[in-house]
Design goal:
Shape: rod-shaped
Radius of gyration: 38 Å
Strand content: over 45%
Order of helices and strands: EEEEEEEEEEEEEEEEEEEEEEEEEE
Distance between the termini: 114 Å
Number of helices: 0
């Protein structure tokens, strides 16, 4: 014979099975003593209800003698509740106590892990002349940087400083940057970095940092390789019809491009920038001209024919 037994409270119980002989009042019994020892539910688990992936936190409870665990998405220390979120989604953090009889009970806390935004990008706006030197950025220079996605926060360490123009910025050292991405290097050389942090609607932040140095640029001028040449200045195409080009890979200090006729009369003048410089000659009369690059340390000139 079988029977289902349900434990209803802690304590000791006698379970008796009695057999009566048919047609008589004679009986015989067997007794089994059973101990009921269900573990009481631990006190509540406390801690954050949401966290960003990759971040760490500590969960707690006032109960003792148990173990912390998580149903995925956390690496968690069972003894002290220190946990690091590993992936976005929802999960439960549990605290489980198991008594000497093997009976367990748990309390739990539901937690949402929010996804981090993609790592932002930092770029230097092209066409800014005279910002770089050997091993870093020339002291006392100004240039522009762009962080994407927009709406992030600039910060700096060491040789960079940040100023505030309406967003949350911080500043230290020898670089200054506005919320419009305008960087100014200090007069004192040194090492540092510029960082851009972007926070999404869930409050999760990703950042990118560019280490850099402020250096003394004692040798000003251009250090470039023009198209089809090594050190000599070359403009192209030559002969030209509507435009001519001049490519500068590295420019330290300020400079200008001056186009003159063979008699020395200035026909056109424009600022020299790093990268490809384009000069519009469509309005020039046909003939030969002199294209000069002038920097703080010298001048290079090349003849060009406009057809």
């Amino acid at each position: 014979s079988t029977s289902n037994v349900t434990a209803v409270s802690n304590g000791t119980a006698n379970i008796v099975y009695t057999l009566q002989t048919s047609g008589t009042t004679c009986t015989t019994s067997t007794t089994v003593v059973v101990t009921v020892a269900q573990q009481a539910t631990p006190n509540a688990v406390t801690g954050v209800s949401s966290i960003c992936a990759g971040n760490s936190t500590t969960f707690a409870t006032t109960s003792t003698g148990g173990v912390f665990s998580a149903l995925g998405r956390f690496n968690i220390n069972g003894s002290n509740g220190f946990a690091t979120a590993t992936s976005a989604g929802t999960t439960s953090v549990r605290y489980t106590i198991t008594n000497a009889f093997g009976c367990s009970a748990s309390s739990s806390l539901n937690v949402t892990i929010n996804e981090l935004p993609a790592t932002p990008t930092i770029g230097i706006v092209p066409g800014t002349p005279g910002i770089t030197g050997s091993g870093g950025y020339c002291k006392g220079k100004t240039f522009n940087v762009v962080g994407k996605p927009t709406g992030g926060i600039w910060s700096s360490t060491g040789a960079f400083a940040i100023t505030n123009l309406g967003v949350v910025w911080s500043s230290t050292g020898a670089f200054a940057i506005t919320n419009l991405g305008v960087v100014t290097t200090d007069a004192t050389p040194g090492a540092g970095s510029v960082s851009y942090a972007y926070t999404n609607s869930n409050g999760c932040t990703s950042s990118r940092t560019i280490p850099a140095n402020v250096v003394t640029c004692s040798s000003k001028g251009i250090n470039n390789q023009m198209a089809n040449s090594n050190e000599q200045l070359v403009v192209y195409p030559n002969p030209a019809h509507s435009t001519i080009n001049l490519t500068v890979k590295t420019l330290v200090g300020s400079g200008s491009i001056v186009v003159t006729d063979l008699y020395g009369k200035t026909i056109k003048q424009q600022a020299l920038s790093m990268g490809t410089n384009t000069i519009n000659v469509s309005s020039f009369a046909k003939g030969m001209y002199l294209v000069s690059v002038i920097t703080e340390t010298g001048k290079q000139t090349q003849k060009v024919v406009v057809e």
